[in-house]
């Protein structure tokens, strides 16, 4: 049985203090690079980073965006992210609890770009659809998703993910969910047979 979101939150909170040091796989680093590159915010843009973790994507975007908002389910990860913001004196970034389907955004906040990296695969396919519908309703002009996703049939002997806690989708499933929610796919980046980046606009 897959873990609940609360169990995921607790698991990531426990790992928060060492999380940054452990994210050194080539595929993860390439996804970070591609998400940042495709997000491409301008000085007028507000970016929402869902599943922000300790802020790997969010901090990269602060140099060009007007404002970056990070949301995560893990208090431990958010504490690490806020500590980094304080130490580095980054003022155009903020962090708070939020979920894909309940992102905790003020109704008067206009979101221009939404990013997410290596987080949505914890949701079931139906939950991913619900999350993408919520993302679409925020009316960003661009959504950039880096994640564990299947470009073909994964080799069960060499999983890029943990079947006991992760629930990645095929690229086709994600593309269908995005287009059904009103997005147009503008780019697909193959990073690994089990990881990639999708760029969607509306």
Automatic annotation (TrEMBL):
<dbReference type="InterPro" id="IPR029063">
    <property type="entry name" value="SAM-dependent_MTases_sf"/>
</dbReference>
<dbReference type="Pfam" id="PF13649">
    <property type="entry name" value="Methyltransf_25"/>
</dbReference>
<feature type="domain" description="Methyltransferase">
    <location>
        <begin position="47"/>
        <end position="135"/>
    </location>
</feature>
<keyword id="KW-0830">Ubiquinone</keyword>
<keyword id="KW-0808">Transferase</keyword>
<dbReference type="InterPro" id="IPR041698">
    <property type="entry name" value="Methyltransf_25"/>
</dbReference>
<protein>
    <submittedName>
        <fullName>Methylase involved in ubiquinone/menaquinone biosynthesis</fullName>
    </submittedName>
</protein>
<keyword id="KW-0489">Methyltransferase</keyword>
<dbReference type="GO" id="GO:0032259">
    <property type="term" value="P:methylation"/>
</dbReference>
<dbReference type="GO" id="GO:0008168">
    <property type="term" value="F:methyltransferase activity"/>
</dbReference>
């Amino acid at each position: 049985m897959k873990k609940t979101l609360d169990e995921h939150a607790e698991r990531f909170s426990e790992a928060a203090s060492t999380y940054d040091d452990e994210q050194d796989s080539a595929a993860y680093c390439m996804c970070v690079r591609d998400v940042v590159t495709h997000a491409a915010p301008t000085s007028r843009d507000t970016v929402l980073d869902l599943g922000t973790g300790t802020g790997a994507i969010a901090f990269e975007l602060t140099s060009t965006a007007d404002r970056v908002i990070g949301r995560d389910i893990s208090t431990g990860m958010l504490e690490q992210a806020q500590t980094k913001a304080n130490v580095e004196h980054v003022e155009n970034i903020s962090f708070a609890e939020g979920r894909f389907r309940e992102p905790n955004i003020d109704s008067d906040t206009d979101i221009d770009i939404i990013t997410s990296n290596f987080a949505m695969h914890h949701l079931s396919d139906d939950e991913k659809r619900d999350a993408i519908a919520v993302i679409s309703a925020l009316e960003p002009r661009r959504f950039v998703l880096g994640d564990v996703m299947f470009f073909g049939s994964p080799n069960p002997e060499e999983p890029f993910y943990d079947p006991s806690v992760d629930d990645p989708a095929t690229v086709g499933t994600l593309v269908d969910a995005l287009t059904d929610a009103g997005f147009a796919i503008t780019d697909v980046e193959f990073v690994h047979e089990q990881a990639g980046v999708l760029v969607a606009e509306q």
